[in-house]
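Running this now, will post back.
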Amino acid sequence: LMSMAEIGATPKGGVKRLTLTEVDQRGRQRFSEWCEALGLTVRVDAIGNMFARREGRDPKRLPVLLGSHLDSQPSGGKFDGALGVIAGLEVVRSLNDLGITTEAPIELVNWTDEEGSRFGHSLMGSGAWAGVYPLDKVYGLTDVEGVTVEQALTAIGYKGAVPAAPFPADAYFELHIEQGPILEREGRQIGIVTGAQAQVWYDAVVTGQDAHAGTTPPSARKDALVCAARIIDLVDRMMRARGEDGRGTVGQLHVLPNSRNVVPGEVRFSVEFRHPDTAEIGRLAAQFPREAGFIARDCGVGLELTELFRLAAQPFDAGCVDLVRQAAARLGLPAREIVSGAG
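Update: finished.
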């Protein structure tokens, strides 16, 4: 785990391993070498997802999948994602050391671009594999420099020949750090994840008018940044109105022309909401565009909102959840049920 953390290491102890970059390529290569050293067969699909297979005693049994992702945010933590991938490696290494052949095959997984920080689409690799996102649409997504996903995959040599399509599996388990304060605050080591939050993501563009900061009076201003600031405050207020279950974030903001003495004429920013209740996300998705539009109207500027995707809350398989619950109890580890906020 610490060896993987050396790839893309940052001064503060984290990592910057943006998806489909040269740094990501190095992480993928190291993972592949470790898998092959353990006798696993590695294959790569058309969206760059990596699967490493250890055969079981019964070839008719469906595989059990273990994995996560190796890409990171620009200021990512060294254990985010990588923990789940490396944990799978440790399971296989222990089985090899003990000479255990499982009945079912085991496949380790490294999903492409789970973070969504480069191409603006979270869960990209797993979503394309599951058929939630059309592959041609995913291939056409671009980063801020105009590089497409397909170009980036080709550049690092990870546009695989295997189709990006789901295959039957018995179960999927992913070990993940919480990335939040709840378990630590309560003194519990294990979060028994019962499901994933519903989400809705937007791209927002506010269009005003560039103007000189010193010569343009308030009555003549069409300040895109003022409007964006008020919409960002709206996101925060809507989140807090939902109590501790609410999540609302603006994580990207691009101001044009970005000059200290020019009234901004355009602002582009991201918006996302998350909540355990799918119906609540539906209400947020109805309320937010309407109220943001009122703000833009009052500011005298234009607003373009594009809904990137909307995901329903996803309850996890009760049998898999219960296996985690039983294991924590058997090992005497303090645990509690929790809904995943990651993704």
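Residues 198-311 form a domain with the Alpha-Beta Plaits fold (CATH 3.30.70.360). More later if anyone needs it.
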